[in-house]
Amino acid sequence: MRINISVIKADLGAIGGHIRPSQALLDAVGNHIKSKSKGLAIDWRVTFTGDDIAILLTHNRGIENEKIHRLCWEAFVAGMKVAKEQGLYGAGQDLLKLDFNGTVKGLGPACAEMEFNEREAEPFLLIAADKTDPGAFNLPLYLSFCDPMHNAGLLISPQIRQGYVFRVIDLSPQDNERFIELKSPEEIYDLAVLLRDQERFAIESIVSRATGDTAAAASTTRLHNIAGKYAGKDDPVMIVRTQKDFPGSGEALSPFGIGHYVAGFMRGSHYGPLMPVKQNSDISFFDGPPIVSAAAYSVHNGKLTEAADCFAQPYWDNVRSRVARKAEEIRQQGFFGPAMLGMDELEYTQMAPILKNLEKKFNIKK
């Protein structure tokens, strides 16, 4: 059976600042999908990560289908109304433009979609992050698809050894329509050159060279490119198919044990380690740390199983403790040096006009 998996995610408002969405807000989104999805979607789920709500849909209407996108958009608008009624902070924060134009792309929400023929067994991961940028997924995807230290299939599986095609998007405001496709294994060094700059480049999709099947799809929305100013972090989401011709679920999750440093944290202006958290976790310390959740599903004829919470397993408690120590260490450095983002990113905050005003006060030595 040929199906689509779509996940669309947005910050619609949260309790007590950026902590978590209210139950009434979650119910408003879920009830809208429940009442309006008949005849459109095969199955659906609504979850949250930090203060972001994700709608997961299976359907057979294709990528960027207007009816599917409108369904999610109108669910978010319904949620925004509840958020405003409750006085939640940042109500409708990610709905930057309210005129729906056929797709949520360019309006604020993060979106990842893929289309494929179902295998006999079709497992996949829904991975969602909060308080960080799309480039936060660069390192985990690189390691799980290119590095045999994390993916033993690169040594063992004939299909996986043939490698993948990575589509990388240029996230800069003037070039955000540009992309490049690079092949592994022969171009992984070129790929690394781009992916190391996680504020400039991000992986949009990964395709198997053995089968031509899509292995992963990730959102690449940059909110400041749409709003022209700081409008919250981009909070990316991605779908990763696993097993057989793709990395195993454990191989796709393994790199998240690093707790690598990403952009985000308080006011989206600091670096912090990405903490793997359980499903439906809140945000707290310094509006962070940046967090990532992972829900594993199986799908058959478009019908989803219940979610398996990947980061609830006891091993990840140890990772969280280590990541918490990393977060505390870099936070002790406050605003100084590499603890805070570079000026290219901070130009979308109030830092730019402050510097511009200070420029007028400089004197020239005689």
Give an overview of the whole structure:
With about 375 residues, this protein is of the alpha+beta class. The chain has one domain. Helix content is about 25%, strand content about 25%. It has 11 helices and 16 strands. The chain has helices spanning about 25-35, 65-85, 140-145, 155, 160, 190-195, 225, 250-255, 315-330, 345, 350-360; strands at about 1-10, 45-50, 50-60, 110-115, 125-130, 165-170, 180-185, 200-210, 215-220, 235-240, 260-265, 270-275, 275, 290-300, 305, 310. The strands form 3 sheets. Strands 5, 6, 7, 8, 9, 10, 13, 14, 15 and 16 form a 10-stranded mixed beta sheet that branches. A 4-stranded antiparallel beta sheet has the order 2-3-1-4, covered by helices on one side. A hairpin with a 2-residue loop joins strand 2 and strand 3 (about 50-60). Helix 3 (about 140-145) packs antiparallel against helix 6 (about 190-195).
Characteristics:
about 25% strand, alpha+beta, about 25% helix, 10-stranded mixed beta sheet, about 375 residues, 4-stranded antiparallel beta sheet, 11 helices
Question: In sequence order, what are the helices and strands, one letter per element?
Answer: EHEEHEEHHHEEHEEHEHEEEEEEHHH
Tell me how many strands there are. Answer: 16
The overall number of domains is 1
Structural class determined from secondary elements: alpha+beta
Which strand-content bin applies to the residues? 25-35%
Radius of gyration: 20 Å
Low-confidence segments, given as residue ranges, are none
